[in-house]
Design goal:
single chain; 264 residues; alpha/beta; TIM Barrel; eight-stranded parallel β-barrel; 9 strands; 38% helix
């Protein structure tokens, strides 16, 4: 295609890191199929106390070991100010989940770091509120912010949330920040994730983040929305064709990730 006008980040991995073996397997499989960055939950914010909350500190050593082998940037959620130091040891991007979009003290503290931040839209946040939340990070001196549209709550109950793809160009134009889409959390239905990945690419998103699991029926969190390896492999070729058709884009990653992530 020649020169590409933009690069599209394909972030994939399990909702939660459940074990060394499981995370390594998923990391190898998604990289082989085209992923440009790896996701995995270390600490999880869950609605119910009895739900799996993540391995916590135990997962940090797992990630350190697998990152050396896989050589992909790693993204994980931060749920508390006290996790900044430990997660900074392994994360190339710290994700702020929907529940914490309005946690301004956390946003300000992340702004004082230089670690890229992926900020998710709150469950019922207006787009201008979303942009205002990102400014708490930017104003503290951290310019490396990625916005993530992950669906909002509406009257519709057929899907987990309502994916607002119009938010993508709106946010890009008004914030000047890269915008990705999370079809997994938006739909919670595996059969809808792939078409929404293609739609996100078509509407000009800068990337997508999807959940992949070796056996979604046995996943300790969000199994209904996780893609199998076969699903992921089926999704990528059409995704590439859509990107080539829209502004001649291709799979890649964000410039500040390329600058930060070094092969060991």
């Amino acid at each position: 295609m020649g020169l590409h006008s933009r690069r599209f980040s394909l972030i994939a991995g399990p909702c939660s890191i459940e074990s060394y073996e499981m995370f390594r397997e998923v990391a190898l499989e998604v990289k082989k199929r085209g992923a440009t960055a790896l996701r995995g939950g270390i600490y999880k914010m869950r609605t119910r106390t009895e739900s799996f909350q993540g391995l916590g500190a135990q997962a940090i050593e797992i990630v350190q070991t697998i990152k050396k082998e896989i050589q992909l940037p790693f993204i994980c959620e931060i749920t508390d100010l006290r996790q900044i130091e430990c997660l900074s040891e392994v994360a190339d991007v710290l994700q702020v989940g929907a529940r914490n979009m309005h946690n301004y003290e956390l946003l300000k503290e992340l702004g004082r770091t230089k670690i890229p931040v992926l900020l998710k839209r709150g469950f019922a946040a207006y787009l201008d509120e979303f942009i205002a939340a990102s400014e708490y990070i930017l104003h503290e001196g951290n310019p490396n912010v990625i916005l993530c549209e992950r669906g909002i709550r509406t009257f519709e109950r057929s899907t987990r949330n309502t994916l607002d793809l119009a938010a993508v160009p709106y946010l890009q134009k008004r914030s000047g920040l890269p915008v990705i889409v999370d079809p997994s959390h938006a739909t919670e239905l595996r059969e809808l994730v792939i078409p929404m990945c293609w739609a996100a690419a078509a509407c000009g998103a800068d990337g997508i983040m999807v959940e992949v699991h070796p056996n979604p029926a046995l996943a300790q969190s969000d199994g209904k929305q996780a893609l199998t390896y076969e699903d992921f492999e089926r999704m990528v070729p059409t995704l590439v064709r859509v990107l080539e058709a829209v502004e001649g884009s291709s799979l890649g990653d964000f410039p500040f990730l390329r600058n930060r992530f070094t092969h060991e």
